């Protein structure tokens, strides 16, 4: 496994762990106690940071540095599919970020909680499916596509973002 694929795989694993926690907590029916629980607030804040930071960084790197190499190598279909999924995931994130922020601040009401539940579960479903595609198709492709020098350069560039 190259450095780039190793970094992306590590991020995928961390995302899956977070998504499992999000699914477990936000799938519960809304209750005043849950909406004010400091552990739920911390999870919501972590989820916000993930959607605003790690996920954006990950998607941007793939689209800017990796997908063009895939297209040049003749695999435009995979690059286009993954980009479309990124766009759909970004749209869901834009819808639920204000709700997750409110949950992190302890200001989310029951109606907002239900909207956060629906959106979070959609985010979990979309991201898990996307990660599975990348793990099974993108990462092996990159290991074959990137020579050692390119892999090293891209890994350093990614680490610097």
Which key features would you list for this structure?
161 residues, mainly alpha, Four Helix Bundle (Hemerythrin (Met), subunit A), 6 helices, elongated
What is the rounded distance between the termini?
21 Å
The major pleated sheet works out as: none
The CATH class: Mainly Alpha
Task: Give the overall form.
Answer: elongated
State the share of residues found in helices, binned by percent.
over 70%
Number of helices: 6
CATH topology group: Four Helix Bundle (Hemerythrin (Met), subunit A)
Radius of gyration: 17 Å
Question: Which class of secondary structure composition applies to the elements?
Answer: mainly alpha
Instruction: Give the tally of structural domains.
Output: 1
Could you name the ranges where pLDDT drops below 50 across 5 or more consecutive residues?
A: none
CATH architecture: Up-down Bundle
Strand content: under 5%
Give the CATH superfamily: nmb1532 protein domain like
SSE pattern, N- to C-terminal: HHHHHH
The whole-number mean of residue pLDDT values reads 93
**What is the number of beta strands?**
0
């Amino acid at each position: 496994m190259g450095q780039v694929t190793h970094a992306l795989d590590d991020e995928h694993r961390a995302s899956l762990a977070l998504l499992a926690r999000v699914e477990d907590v936000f799938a519960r029916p809304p209750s005043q106690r849950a909406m004010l629980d400091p552990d739920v607030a911390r999870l919501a804040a972590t989820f916000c940071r993930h959607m605003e930071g790690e996920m954006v960084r990950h998607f941007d790197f793939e689209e800017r540095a990796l997908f063009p190499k895939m297209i040049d190598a003749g695999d435009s279909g995979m690059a286009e599919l993954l980009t479309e999924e990124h766009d759909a995931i970004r749209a869901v994130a834009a819808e639920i970020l204000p709700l997750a922020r409110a949950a992190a601040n302890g200001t989310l009401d029951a109606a907002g909680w239900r909207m956060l539940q629906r959106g979070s579960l959609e985010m979990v479903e979309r991201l898990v499916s996307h990660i599975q595609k990348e793990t099974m198709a993108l990462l092996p492709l990159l290991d074959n596509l990137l020579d050692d020098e390119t892999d090293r350069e891209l890994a350093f560039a990614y680490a610097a973002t």
